[in-house]
Amino acid sequence: MPYHEFEASKCIPERKQHAVIKGPGEDLSHALPKGYLNTIPGSISERGCAYCGAKHVIGTPMKDVIHISHGPVGCTYDTWQTKRYISDNNNFQLKYTFATDVKEKHIVFGAEPLLKKNIHEAFDAFPEIKRMTIYQTCATALIGDDIDAIAQEVMEERPDVDIFVCNSPGFAGPSQSGGHHKINIAWINQKVGTVEPEITSDYVINYVGEYNIQGDQEVMLDFFNRMGIQVLSTFTGNGSYDGLRAMHRAHLNVLECARSAEYICDELRARYGIPRLDIDGFGFEPLSGSLRKIGLFFGIEDRAEAIIAEETAKWKPQLDWYKERLKGKRVCLWPGGSKLWHWAHVIEEEMGLKVVSVYTKFGHQGDMEKGISRCSEGALAIDDPNELEGLEAIEMLKPDVIFTGKRPGEVAKKAGVPYLNAHGYHNGPYKGYEGWVRFARDIYNAIYSPMHQLSNLDISKDEIPTDNGFLTRKMLSDATLPPEVVNDPILKQYDGKLDPIPDLRAKTYPVFPKKEPAPVAAE
């Protein structure tokens, strides 16, 4: 077993089994780190908790809901507005967050009266919102507050409202993935089957495990609409509370993020006989294959093929342009969850990048299995890394760019490596054909940014370049520029003639002369 031991973690011997380098010819039986286990004390884990997995990942994207956390205000603040789950009701669920703000006195004397008071206040403050989700936290779970009873009392007092209770305190699982499971099962137990929808198509699906990050869902809905498919509900991006209560009437569950939402798909199959079909909206080939599978299920393959042909003809030349310039660039794929296997193979095949490391902070063994199987030899796979291990990996692997979350991304920037936000995106959406080109553009801009190159200069000793174009201008000068670039007003000053610019690292560019300090006159 090719375990990798970090210098920073030698004082914790167990951590050695949580990092593996994939060797030549090795399969998963030889190159799989231990994962989804309780955090090792002293390892300074950066995992999210089960409450975070329930509220932040899955619950909050529901748009017409008051999301209230029953616990200390810090729990709520930590899960507020850290992802771009946009919605078409003016982003209500992003603009507001609600908490009972439990204090020490409530821990001693009980917080149920406080919860009931807060529920009524929230509904009074937003009378147009008639739906609510209450999330349990560690503090109120430990003192035994009966949230279900309080919710039932309020619904009896206010017959026009409906409340969903999610008992997923932070300690409910090894990581936030435990919270995914909790809210999936709670939703189907409490709410699915309580509303009857209007069916308008012969082809009806639930789009599951899709959270509408920067509009990802809208891209996919456009494809489904063009195929004549009715999307009954989206679990849970831009999803309406009552729409999600009608999931039992779909003909097919189309599953995107298997790690966070496969549980409800499996229960819908067991209870209502609705089949599950896993798809992938990232990358030209995975997306095309997904549309073909859906078309095959409903017998409308021709509609899928028409979309694939149109979108590929429109966007593939642009993707190829970026692939030529990203070829061989080294990537640490550290997104935390399912994107490590959604992206691992396709960014190598369609963008020319080389994945040198994958990691997951909260995924299951299945995530790591799929991620490692799609990586090349020599890739470093890490389960639940901490900041020191991440910095050590950066120094060892010397990546050109890192795909990760905002917090570890800022650490990477301090180490001189650009990052892209794999959770909330930089300039998304990234799904769909155009979205995949947009992702490639963000990678290109991150790697070749003149500002990033300047940031690695030591102004106390390095020569300072005076040219503003650097490698980007050189790259454009070597290419056949499309009309929209040639006619760009910013580039018109060059009249389409861009001089090749030397590599910044070659240090053959013009420099400001260094001035010697003036001699000090002797007294």
UniProtKB/TrEMBL annotation:
Assigned keywords, A-Z: ATP-binding, Iron, Iron-sulfur, Metal-binding, Nitrogen fixation, Nucleotide-binding, Oxidoreductase
Nitrogenase/oxidoreductase component domain: residues covered: 49-447
Reaction(s) this enzyme catalyzes, per UniProt: N2 + 8 reduced [2Fe-2S]-[ferredoxin] + 16 ATP + 16 H2O = H2 + 8 oxidized [2Fe-2S]-[ferredoxin] + 2 NH4(+) + 16 ADP + 16 phosphate + 6 H(+)
EC number: 1.18.6.1
Record-linked InterPro entries: Nase/OxRdtase_comp1, Nase_asu, Nase_comp1_asu, Nase_comp1_CS, Nase_Fe-Fe_asu
PROSITE patterns (UniProt xref): NITROGENASE_1_1, NITROGENASE_1_2
Cofactor(s) this protein cannot do without: [8Fe-7S] cluster
Domain of life of the organism encoding this protein: Bacteria
Record-level Gene Ontology MF annotations: ATP binding; iron-sulfur cluster binding; metal ion binding; nitrogenase activity
Description of how the protein assembles with itself and partners: Hexamer of two alpha, two beta, and two delta chains.
Protein family per UniProt: Belongs to the NifD/NifK/NifE/NifN family.
Protein name, entry field: Nitrogenase protein alpha chain
Source organism of this protein record: Rhodomicrobium udaipurense
Lineage: Bacteria, Pseudomonadati, Pseudomonadota, Alphaproteobacteria, Hyphomicrobiales
Chain's gene name: anfD
